[in-house]
Specification:
It is built from 11 helices and 2 strands; from the N terminus they run αααβααααβαααα. The chain has 221 residues and is an all-alpha fold. It has one domain. The chain has a two-stranded parallel sheet with strand order 1-2. Helix 6 packs antiparallel against helix 7, helix 6 packs parallel to helix 9 and helix 7 runs antiparallel to helix 9. The chain is globular and about 60 Å long. The relative contact order is 0.15.
Length: 221
């Protein structure tokens, strides 16, 4: 109890913002159904990608990985933590808006076998209907994490290698698990880049508007 009294709770209060994740998860379930025309973005390149059940492991640890990255950003640089949360929320809500008017699907393979990886794939398929594909939330959020660490003040060869490697593995898992197609992944990456660019412009505009106005007498003849 003494330890709890000595904790600076105000310092950790920004972590409460992560409570937005359960609400976003509930919104996902509202859109994860086929109540409209469903399209396919499958290409010959996607058909050439084999189904590999072992990629179920990086796929399923995705949300834990996102939490760990956010906690790491919180510890290293609060501004990066806030930027990550805001980008995630903006991109997720954009995805939901797209899902509500443009629903796509990906054909799933027939599963055979009685091993732990097949069980894990079955679990993933049972929990997530084959909709809400374009853009990919797995892909945009994983790419967002490596994008943020690349431009952070605390980047080093270790965190860049680890976060880039894990994010890339998760993105690839969406393809090998037949949960997404290539266009879903590319759209997720483009969504992050667009959202970050817009937020940067807004940030610069706000910063400029708050800066002291120049002395107009300087420009008088």
């Amino acid at each position: 109890m003494t330890f709890l009294r000595n904790v600076d709770w105000k310092k950790y209060s920004p972590l409460a913002l992560m409570l937005v994740f359960p609400f976003l998860g509930m919104m996902y379930q509202w859109t994860n159904r086929a109540d409209q025309d469903v399209y396919s973005l499958l290409t010959a390149y996607d058909q050439a990608i084999p189904f590999i059940k072992y990629f179920a492991l990086p796929y399923v640890v995705w949300i834990l990985y996102i939490y760990v990255c956010l906690l790491y950003f919180f510890k290293k640089d609060l501004s990066v933590y806030y930027r990550a949360l805001l980008t995630y929320i903006v991109c997720t809500l954009t995805c939901y808006a797209i899902y509500s008017v443009f629903q796509t699907t990906v054909p799933r393979p027939d599963l055979t076998g009685d091993d732990p990886f097949t069980w894990l794939v079955n679990y993933i398929y049972d929990r997530d209907q084959p909709f809400n594909c374009f853009p990919s939330i797995h892909c945009f959020s994983s790419y967002m994490m490596m994008r943020l660490v690349w431009t952070s003040s605390f980047r080093n060869k270790w965190n860049v290698t680890l976060i880039t490697g894990m994010s890339t593995l998760i993105i690839l898992s969406t393809l090998f698990m037949k949960q997404h197609v290539i266009l879903d992944a590319l759209a997720g990456i483009l969504l992050v880049e667009t959202s970050m660019a817009i937020m940067l412009l807004v940030e610069l505009y706000v910063r400029e508007s708050r800066s002291p106005q120049r002395d107009k007498t300087t420009y008088r003849a």
